[in-house]
Amino acid sequence: MQMNKEQFLKQLEAFLKRLSLEERQDILQDYKEYYAMGIEKGKSEQEISASLGHPKQIAKELLASYHLDMVEQTTSSGNILRAVWAVIGLGFFNILIVLGPFCALAGVVISGWLASVAFILSPLGVLINLFLGQFRMSDMFFSLGLCGIGIFIAMGMLVATKSLTKGFIRYLKFNITFVKGGVKHE
Amino acid sequence: MLVLLDKQDRYGYELVQKISDQIEISEGSVYPLLRRLTKEEYFTTYLQESSEGPPRKYYKLTDKGREYLHELLTEWNEFSNGVNQLIEEGVCK
């Protein structure tokens, strides 16, 4: 069962609810034009719908692009996750080349932050020892040193997190500007 | 896609047909790519009346797009030269 033009456009529109009205209209206009050209060339609406593929897949690609633009406007962890998720959703190949690097980078960032937080809080441990009556002066100096190092790590992590995020977004954008598909065998 | 627009401006339908002749991709996926490349300012679009039917949306390569195209072509050539060399060495052994 192939869709006709109206069904196709209606479905696509429904999947694109998140986009602004203007952008959605613009997208639908492109596909309307495509139908008009195809019909001129003597194809039926059903044939054209079949060659276009499923509206859901098309919407996924458009939404991935939209989410990446959102991240550029406001870099929040929610926006980043949504963008990564949208790009991963595009296909199996993307799971490999997006999810892998993403997990690795997220691991580095999270462990870096954990280390700095643990270092900064280490004097607290000495205070606890004080209450327990096991206080040693050398521990105090050592933990204050760690605290200082922790602050440095945190500053470094701030810069690193920012640039890693930026780089990764660039990578995602680069990723979706490529046609993915096999070469046709004649 | 950039290569197709290097020498002349084309309209959407034409681009989609050219690409889907060569590459296994559903034709509907070409438009999202066109939009993306337009957003990245590699293309600009303009409408032009055609002799028959509704006005067509034409895509035109920008200077930025042309620069990017040449970058990609250089990279591609280096890569394919490298691979060819490896194949030759492998086969001639």
Number of helices of chain A: 7
Query: How many beta-strand elements of chain B?
Result: 3
Strand tally of chain A is 0
SSE run of chain B: HEHHEEH
Structural class estimated from helices and strands of chain A: mainly alpha
User: What is the mean pLDDT of chain B?
Assistant: 82
Note the run of SSEs of chain A as H and E.
HHHHHHH
Reading side by side through the largest sheet of chain B, how are the strands ordered? 1-3-2
Oligomer: heterodimer
Largest sheet of chain B: 3 strands, antiparallel
Summarize the largest interface: chains and residue counts.
A-B, 30 and 30 residues
Overview of the structural elements:
The complex is a heterodimer of chains A (186) and B (93). Chain A is mainly alpha-helical. Chain A is 81% helix and 0% strand. Chain A is built from 7 helices and no strands. Chain A has helices spanning 5-15, 21-40, 45-52, 55-73, 77-88, 92-132, 137-176. In chain A, helix 4 crosses helix 7 (137-176) and helix 6 (92-132) packs antiparallel against helix 7. The longest helix of chain A is centred in the middle third of the chain and has 41 residues, at 92-132. The radius of gyration of chain A is 26 Å and the shape is rod-shaped. With 93 residues, chain B is α+β, with helices and mostly antiparallel strands. Chain B is built from 4 helices and 3 strands; from the N terminus they run H-E-H-H-E-E-H. Chain B has a 3-stranded antiparallel sheet. Chain B starts with a helix and ends with a helix. The interface between A and B is medium-sized, with 30 and 30 residues.
